[in-house]
Each structure stands twice: as structure tokens, then as C-alpha cells.
Design goal:
14% helix; two-stranded antiparallel ribbon; mainly beta; 140 residues
Length: 140
């Protein structure tokens, strides 16, 4: 998940991301409430979500690391572009990428749920498997 905040680009690996509705198309992303990203998402309604491919474990790890640098640095060695609708950085080698606009924020325990409408599907790559993590391990 990436978002642009002025001159800064932020991103994180989220462990809870799901479809909410097909009509209208909506998704939900869960982010730790105490994180700086949640603060930024309180100011910026538009963001991007990339469903990584099974070969992108290292990229997911970089975006999940404590004290990680900004998204521009994390994506420096990866092909990427800015989303047309969100202006967020989007890695080009994932399974799919969505540009989203937050419609509702819901506090739930130590996380904030961002319910968002899908503004556009940036790309879909049908020839790759998605990176899926369950019970703290990646599925093969």
C-alpha cells in the first residue's frame, strides 16, 4: 500500500486486504492505528494497493521492516510509476494494482480499517500467482 503526502511517499505491507463489494467495487485495508501511515491516510484519501506476485517476498519484506525508509527508496531498484488517479508509487511487477479512494475509516482495536472505492485498476497480470501470507508464513 502506498500513498503520496506532499513531497514524501510512504508505503507498507498490509496483512489484511480484502474485497468488500463488487457493485460498487470496494476494498478494505487494515493499518496499525498508531502508525505514521494511518496519520497520513487521515489527510490523503487517495492511495494505491499492489497485490504482489509470489516472487516478490523480498519487496514485501522491505515494506514491512521497522524503521523503513520512504517508498521511493524502497522502490529505487524496482520498475515503478505514479498512479494516474492517486499519484502514489506503484510497482510494475506485481500481480495487480488498484488505485483507491477512502470512503470510510473505522477504528477496530489497534488497527484502522480503510474502506475504499476503487478508482481504477492500474494493471492485472494473469500469468503470475499472488503472494499470500497465512499464519506468519508465505504460501507456496
Amino acid at each position: 500500500m502506498t500513498v503520496r503526502d506532499g513531497r514524501d511517499d510512504l508505503g507498507t505491507t498490509v496483512t489484511s486486504f480484502m474485497s468488500v463489494s463488487l457493485d460498487p467495487p470496494m476494498v478494505l485495508a487494515s493499518v496499525t492505528t498508531s502508525s505514521y501511515l494511518t496519520e497520513v491516510l487521515g489527510r490523503q484519501d487517495r492511495w494505491a494497493a499492489t497485490i504482489l506476485s509470489s516472487g516478490q517476498r523480498a519487496l514485501a519484506g522491505r515494506f514491512a521492516a521497522e524503521g523503513r525508509p520512504g517508498a521511493r527508496i524502497l522502490l529505487a531498484s524496482e520498475p515503478h510509476h505514479r498512479g494516474e488517479h492517486s499519484d502514489a508509487l506503484i510497482p510494475e511487477s506485481g500481480r495487480s494494482a488498484l488505485e483507491c479512494e477512502t470512503r470510510r475509516r473505522v477504528e477496530a482495536g489497534d488497527h484502522t480499517l480503510f474502506v475504499a472505492g476503487i478508482l481504477s485498476t492500474d494493471y492485472v497480470s494473469r500469468d503470475q500467482d499472488s503472494l499470500i501470507r497465512v499464519n506468519r508464513r508465505y504460501l507456496t
